[in-house]
Amino acid sequence: MPSTPAPRIGALLQGARNAITDVAGVLVGHRTLDAGAIQTGVTVIRAHAGDPFRDKVPAAAMVLNGFGKSLGLVQLAELGVLETPIALTNTFCVGTVATAQIRHCVAANPECGRSLPTVNPLVFECNDGFLNDIQRLAVTEADYLHALESAGSDFAQGSVGAGRGMSSFQLKGGIGSASRCVPAPDRRRHTVGTLVLANYGRQAQLVLAGDPVGARLAAQAAAAAQEPEKGSIIIVVATDAPLDARQLRRLALRAGAGLARTGSVLGHGSGDIVLAFSTACTVPDRVERPMPAIALLHEELLDGLFQATADSTEQAILHALWHATAVTGRDGNHRAPLGEVLARLPSFAPARTPA
């Protein structure tokens, strides 16, 4: 990790932690597997501390490029709610993590799949096979439960959890997070928090806070610069603003603006998916329970949230690179952290000021 703070993106205020957990009630936990050729893990995001099967939250997803193997998006698109925590892991462990989500839901709701509906597990993935021996299927159901039970407001970023084996711009990628605050009509403010699993990008295209530094890095490593785009990024956006699923889909789309600023062109081999959810209300599981009565935010007031989403996404990606540490994994494959390669450059001139 560089010795200086990451450049600060945009002029909006950031939350106290500058993380997705600045949205009240949102919690994040990791399980990191670091053992030779096993460099992987699982990260869990909880929308609230309760049971999401009984108390769902509005949500929507936007698939920017569909080269991915995520699970649960079809029902999410149809019903517009989350009913499990959000899980991030590697490509080959999606099934294991989904099974863990189902077992956990059934343990809390014994009639799930019987007198109650089945549960829709939600698992996102990126391919960490360069650093991790992905064929070992190392992530277990117990690892998911560990990440779930350890979820809290403060959490590590960089080469941790699902981000342990991820690469980004042919450097070490991983988990990053950020938040931004937007004035609200009632003199309060709304918070937008973002968490990314960054595993995408070609080095020559890397832009850090407005500085096209990737071209200079690639000139020092011409062979690496020729690698094709074959990674992915998962972006999770949380807000406390009262939005429905349709509005959340609009919010999710704006994460693409922040992603593009870092140099992404949504390459052929990159699976780029955004999930957005709101904690402003919960939707009951049973018809006998009352539905929430809230005033949704007017469409004309969404621009501030759009800006916050774009800025916090770009900031979260910077944090993923900034906090990542070097990892050597399968067959001796190695990814250096951003700080190490920046130190080799004569200058780094971000267009934004450090936080």
UniProtKB/TrEMBL annotation:
Query: Which InterPro entries did the record assign?
Result: ArgJ-like_dom_sf (IPR016117), Peptidase_S58_DmpA (IPR005321)
Q: Which SUPFAM superfamilies has this protein been placed in?
A: DmpA/ArgJ-like (SSF56266)
- Highest taxon above the source species: Bacteria
Species of origin: Verminephrobacter aporrectodeae subsp. tuberculatae
Return the protein name: S58 family peptidase
As for family, the record states:
Belongs to the peptidase S58 family.
